[in-house]
Design a protein that fits this description.
2 domains, binds magnesium ion, Phosphorylase Kinase, domain 1, binds adenosine-5'-diphosphate, alpha+beta, single chain
Length: 398
């Protein structure tokens, strides 16, 4: 096979591909190739030279999803992903994998192998503690989000950047799965835990006050081209060790509200918290409580520092404007945290932190805490503007 025309590669094809397209491996190398993807959309291969231990990751997009042949999504997403990884690598050095090559024919890219890290959601499922996570993830968010805003960037350059990150298919997935289906199941693909069906019907599907607020958030997601966001910043998109944090999988990136990223991080920490809570992991949940607070508070303080050093728009320098802008970001953050808490429990893409809770009573309890908190976060989103506001509400609900 040559690689002049797109096809979906298997392990052997990928082996030939890296030999032909890169000079990472010497001629006498002994290469092994393995598909290691665990997501719903893409194929991820690890190629390693068993003699030298040199390795590389190849991520390729397929034209249909791995879960259903009927769901087609543009393979252009791999261009978006490799390009934003390069951009994030410039703004947030060391916090994303290095990209070695992007191939617009095969719709794949090559990146640094992070197999010596662990996917954070997996680590959290065994109650591991990551003391530097809050510091790293807030640096990642502030340093990737703020520099792409009109506050900092030249407005014409920003519009050029925005054009190159138009991502309709992946935005549609979020518009449906995050902002619509969890609140009415109109596509009949929600996965509500049997014992929780009645409760969800009554407290979510039939709550018109809640749904009005979700509608407002949905249009803010579609219409607020604030910053180049990651778009899928859950704990399954974080590779981590005690010392290092690397954010992967930004294929959902587009110009949207930056609170989307911050809110996703908070909600996914709450899922881990609930798992730790029902399993009585005291030290773990204390660390998570502190981490949730730090994610909010360090985000705020780094945001202010970055703003002061880099604001370029003359009107954005008006007294009070930064405070107003940040308060809007925090409002979006709370709202999105509520949406993510809802959609991972009601919608079709669930999280192991919750689904792995085997005891029915504990599972019901964890789900209802998340959903009750979600409602408050969405409806009263203007009341959450420091870390403690989030953890106080969480503790009120458990
Ligand atoms: P998807 O978009 O399909 O969710 P991800 O980028 O999240 O794909 O990758 C799926 C899995 O592949 C990850 O959970 C991880 O196990 C593995 N993987 C992805 N990128 C790397 C990498 N740079 N190094 C090592 N493993 C990786
Ligand atoms: Mg993924
Ligand atoms: Mg469910
Ligand atoms: Mg992905």
């Amino acid at each position: 096979k040559n690689f002049n025309e797109y096809f979906l590669m298997n392990e052997t094809d990928v082996l030939d591909y890296v030999k032909e397209k890169t000079d990472l491996f010497s001629d006498d190398s002994d290469l092994e190739s393995k598909e290691i993807g665990d997501g719903n959309l893409n194929y991820v291969f690890r190629v390693v030279d068993v003699n030298s231990d040199v390795s590389v990751i190849v991520k390729q997009a397929g034209e249909v999803t791995r879960i259903s042949e009927d769901m087609r999504i543009s393979i252009d997403r791999i261009r978006i992903e490799s390009n934003i990884l390069k951009l994030q690598g410039k703004h947030a050095t060391g916090l994303v994998p290095k990209v070695y090559l992007y191939d617009d024919v095969m719709n794949c890219f090559l990146m640094e192998d992070l197999s010596d890290h662990e996917i954070m959601r997996e680590g959290l499922l065994s109650y591991k503690i990551y003391p530097k996570f809050a510091d790293h993830i807030t640096t990642f968010m502030v340093n990737t989000l703020l520099p792409t805003t009109d506050v900092v960037m030249d407005h014409k350059e920003k519009k050029e950047l925005l054009k190159s990150f138009i991502n309709p298919d992946l935005c549609e997935i979020s518009e449906e799965l995050v902002y619509t289906e969890p609140f009415n199941d109109y596509n009949n693909r929600n996965l509500v835990f049997e014992d929780n069906k009645e409760w969800v019907e009554k407290n979510i599907y039939n709550d018109s006050e809640l749904k009005l607020e979700v509608a407002k958030l949905k249009f803010a997601f579609m219409n607020n081209a604030q910053a180049l966001i990651h778009g899928d910043l859950h704990t399954g998109s974080v590779f981590i060790t005690e010392e290092l944090t690397k954010v992967i999988d930004p294929e959902f990136a587009f110009y949207g509200p930056m609170g989307y990223d911050v809110g996703n991080v908070i909600a996914n920490l709450i899922f881990a918290y609930m798992n730790g809570y029902v399993n009585d992991k005291k030290e773990f949940i204390e660390w998570l409580e502190k981490t949730i607070e730090e994610v909010v508070d360090k985000f705020k303080s780094k945001f202010v520092d970055y703003w002061k050093d880099n604001v370029s728009d003359i009107m954005a320098k008006e007294a009070g404007f930064m405070e107003w802008y940040l308060s809007e970001v925090l409002k979006d953050t709370a709202g999105v945290a509520g949406l993510e808490l809802s959609r991972r429990i009601i919608g079709m893409a669930q999280v192991k932190d919750i689904t792995s809770i085997e005891d029915t009573e504990y599972r019901l309890f964890a789900e209802r805490v998340c959903l009750s908190l979600a409602k408050e976060l969405i409806i009263n989103r203007d009341k959450f503007n420091e870390g403690k506001h989030f953890t106080d509400k969480l503790k009120e609900n458990v």
